[in-house]
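Person: Please work through this fold.
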Amino acid sequence: MICTKKLILLILLALFLSLLSLPQSIHAGAEQSAAYPSMAAPGKKVPIGNDHYLIYGFDKKPKLGMVIMKVEIFTRDGRKDTSFEVKGDSDMPSMRGAHASGDQAFKVSKKGDYLLPVNIVMPGDWEIKLTIMKDGKVVARGRYNFDV
């Protein structure tokens, strides 16, 4: 009888603890979306504070396989600026984490373009989250969602 009560108590405790973690994971997902606002379409200016903007695109229309995402950062007067650090994270929102690349640093080309290879491994909805940093501090975030 004592063993049965202990077993029931342990099961209830485990259930309670698992329920506590559920709202946190849902809340974390909502925070993630809010922290990465949707960006204007590829080829359009995306503001970075008051003094800079970026324009992003791809080497080809995203499809299965490898595509290269290109980001260019400009000062307000149109001069390229390569003093930023840009990171990208690609994933499928409908299968969050299953195909996530994790934060990957863009490489700066000789032309001053920030480049990141993105591996599209299956058809469906995709999202690329950008983090723009200057002097080690995040100055902007954004996301681009698309279907393949």
